[in-house]
């Protein structure tokens, strides 16, 4: 091996190590908020924890929903014939909000709702959040990979806002799914079941619209809306924690 070849191989090795370190940091930044929020929700479910295998299953299927979501969003984008605010609204409420929340809820209704372990209202929130964070984990990695040059800034900002937003939409979804599952008549079941989709989809749409509408002043609306999401959904979460049938189990 010549000296020139040795130097070239050393440069390739250094570049590979640098890229590897960068990718490790990217995945750490992308997934750290997801793990933190999962642990937060899991400790909230302290009176009767859900089976880890079922939670992992729902998380994985939630992550896999990025595939149908991507396909449907591409199809819906074809019909975006609007401009300006109408285009922003269509993108926010229909392409993103409705599509993503539909598939996240589908995972819960398919794998959690029929399961015998879903036996109290809090469980609906736990399962819905797991599905939502599964989706958010893959989405977050994809966003950071698309913006490798500024992935640290993007990852931190999404870790503060976007990933927790998915959890909060999941709390709303689970709140209404449980009201539907444990309602005492069919009319209420149907009403709450519809709300378990269109309320989180509406919240998701408002969140996205304030960011992509192009109006700088809406940043103040966005900040107020984020505070609203946290307040309302933490109240919903704590309400179901306090109602747990296992709370006073001896």
Mind explaining what this structure looks like?
The chain is mostly helical. It has one domain. It has nine helices and no strands. The longest helix has 42 residues, at 3-44. It is globular.
Question: Can you lay out the helices and strands and say which pair or pack?
Answer:
Elements: H1 3-44, H2 52-64, H3 66-78, H4 84-111, H5 121-146, H6 151-160, H7 162-181, H8 186-212, H9 218-242
Low-confidence stretches: none
Structural class designation: mainly alpha
What does the radius of gyration come to?
21 Å
Beta-strand fraction estimate: under 5%
* H and E order: HHHHHHHHH
> How many H/I helices?
9
Quick one: how many beta strands? 0
What is the overall pLDDT average?
92
Instruction: Tell me, briefly, the overall form.
Output: globular
Q: How many angstroms does the end-to-end distance come to? A: 74 Å
User: How would you characterize the largest beta sheet?
Assistant: none
Can you give the helix content as a percent range?
Answer: over 70%
Give the number of domains: 1
